[in-house]
Amino acid sequence: MPERDLIAHLARFAAALRERGVRVGLSDAIAAAEALILVDVGDRDEVRRALGVALRIRPADRPAFERAFEELWRAQPRGERGSTTARVQPSRGQALALGLAPADGERRPGDPSGVALGWSPEPRLKRKPFELCSPAELAEMERLLSRAARRLAARRSRRLVPTRGAGLTDLRRSFRRAVGTGGDLFALARRARALETPRLVFLCDTSGSMDPHSRFLLAFAVALRAVARDTEVFAFNTALVRVTSRLAPHLAPARLADRVPDWSGGTRIGECFETFVAEHAARLLGPKTVVIILSDGLDRGEPGRLAAAMRAIRARSRAVLWLNPLAGDPRYEATARGMQAALPFVDRLLPAHDLASLERVLPLLAA
C-alpha cells in the first residue's frame, strides 16, 4: 500500500471513530501510522491489534472501534489486503529512524548504490511492541535477547585479579615468587581485569494489566540469569512468590502461571514489597545488588506502604531500576499513585515495551 494511501485510510478511520464518540487526536493517528509500519498489513488481526494499541482504545469504546475497523477493512481494495507478505513501505526518513534503511554512504550486501531501502528483520523485531507480536516473533526475540545478555557476561570490571594468561605484570607477586627460586624470575605473575558478575534481583508484576508483557519480561530475567547466576526472580500481584527455581530457558508461562497465585489478577505492590523486605532483603540485598522492578505501577494498595518498602529496598541496594512498559509511549506521565509513591526511591525509570528498550538496560547492570 503506498504511504499516501495509508495516511488517507487512517484519516478516514480516525474520522469514523470521532463520529462514534471515540477520542482520537492527531498524535494518536501518527502513532497508528508508525505502528502499521511494524506489522503485516495483510494480516487482519495484526492490523486490528496494532490500531487498538496505538490509538489507546478504551474498553468502553471497543464496540465502536470494531465497527469502524470492519468498515475500514472492507473499504480496502482486495489486492491491498490479500497478500500475507505485503507491508507498508515507510518513507526514507521513517526507515532511517526505525533502523530499516542504511544511512547515507552506507552499503548493504547486494546494494551497490548504498541508498536503496530494505527490510532487516532484527531492527523491525527490536522495535515491535510486545503486545503486537505473534508467538513466533516472541520466540525469535527471546533468542536475540539471550544473545544480547551474553555480552553482559563478557563485561570487564576495573578490579584486577591474578591470571595465567596475558595481562599486566604484577611485580609484587613476581618478586615474592622469586624468593623460592633464589631470586631468579623464571615466570612473571600477571593480573587482568576481572569479569563483572552483577548480582540481580527481579521483582516481576504478573497482574492483569501486565499480561501482554509478563512473558517477555520474565524471559528477560531468564536470559540474564543464564549469564549472571547470582540472580533471584520473584513474581508478584496480590502476593509475592519466589520463582527462581522454576525458571528455565524456553520458559512456558502457562506452566509458571499455574504455580503463581492470582496470575493476571489484581495487584498490591506495596504489600508484596513489604513481604520481600521482611523475608528476603537481608539475605539478597547489598552494596553490589541491582534491583530490577518490572511493573506498570498500577497499584490497588496503599501508596504509603509502597513508599516505605521502596525506601527500605533502596537503602540496601546499589541501584533500583524500574522498567515500565507504559513508559515506551512518549506521552506517558507517571501519574499513577503507585509510581508517584515509588519514584523518589528509583534511580532510573525506563521503558520496557520492546526488545530495543530492554537491550538499553544491560549496560546499566554492570556500571
Helix/strand structural class: alpha/beta
Largest sheet: 6 strands, mixed
* Share of helix, binned: 40-55%
CATH top level label of the largest domain: Alpha Beta
Strand content: 5-15%
Shape: globular
CATH topology of the largest domain: Rossmann fold
Q: Give the C-alpha Rg.
A: 25 Å
Number of strands: 9
Total DSSP helices: 17
Strand order of the largest sheet: 6-5-4-7-8-9
Low-confidence stretches: 77-120
- Quote the average pLDDT: 75
Structure explained in plain terms:
The protein has 367 residues and is of the alpha/beta class. It has 3 domains: 3-81; 156-195, no CATH class; 199-365, Rossmann fold. 45% of the residues lie in helices and 13% in strands. The chain has 17 helices and 9 strands. The protein has helices at 3-19, 26-37, 44-54, 62-75, 78-81, 92-98, 121-126, 135-153, 171-179, 211-227, 253-259, 269-279, 281-284, 303-315, 337-342, 355-359, 362-365; strands at 156-163, 168-169, 190-195, 199-205, 231-236, 240-242, 289-294, 319-324, 348-351. Helix 14 (303-315) links the parallel strand 7 (289-294) and strand 8. The longest helix is centred in the middle third of the chain and has 19 residues, at 135-153. Mean pLDDT is 75; it is low at 77-120.
